[in-house]
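Handout, section B. The chain below has 289 residues.
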Amino acid sequence: MSRRPSHPVRLLASALAAGALLTTAACSDGGGSDSASDTAAEQAGVAKQNAAKQTPSGSPTTSPTGSPSASPGTLTESGAKAALLTEADLEGDWNQVQDADKWRDRLLVGKVDVAGFLTAKADAADCRQLLDGLYRDNLLGEPSGPSALTGFEQGDSRLLEQVAGYDRAGLDDRLKWMGSLPQKCDEFTATDSGGAERTVQVTEASVPDVGDAREGLRVTVQGDADGTPVTLTLDIAAVRVGTSALTVTGGGLDGGQTSSVEQGVRQGTERLKTVLAGGTPSPQPTDLD
């Protein structure tokens, strides 16, 4: 397939063709040939100068087929709220609640038994931070920018999402820290204020390949609630987009919520990317059945 000449080249070719016609016409008239030739030469010279101005030396004459994607913008207070999930973003019978910021699960409160760790204090401190982060909804640390939070209920299960702006270096460190927890906190014991022991297990969980970086965990806590043995299961996923991030946590005493957390991560990441690009998330997601 022949390549179509670029705009400056077409200008030059047109000018030269026009000059040739003028010269031919002057010769056939038998007079004024000097004037016609001068005119053609002037037009050709102007065309060359214009082409030189439009195409710098060493630059291609055709435009690139694509341009680099713009880096994510800065999260604002209103943007953080707009990026939050809605009921329409989730499959199932999830109902949005108004008091998600007050949710606290007492099974996550306890003193970590240092004696149960090979590297004792170091790993025990990390596991205590994990429990505190889940209890206080700040697993990625305290945001340095705007933040917003929402929650949903479905039967006895809950799903919580937080969107916030962070310091980039601190955010990357925190995600790396999350990735180390399945090894550091594989299984440990936490003791509540009344002396009751709870067994905590931490495993790695998959996260959809979205955003710039991501980490996933599954945490189970076996303990006692009102004299009845119970197991709290939480699926947790965190995704970074630029210097912003979203965290989705789902589960309860009925088990984990892997599929809902994954769906929330996909939809939540798209909403966050749209907001950071200066847009408004669609009220009706297109990838839900």
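Note. The first strand starts at residue 95 and ends at 97. Compare this with the example in section A.
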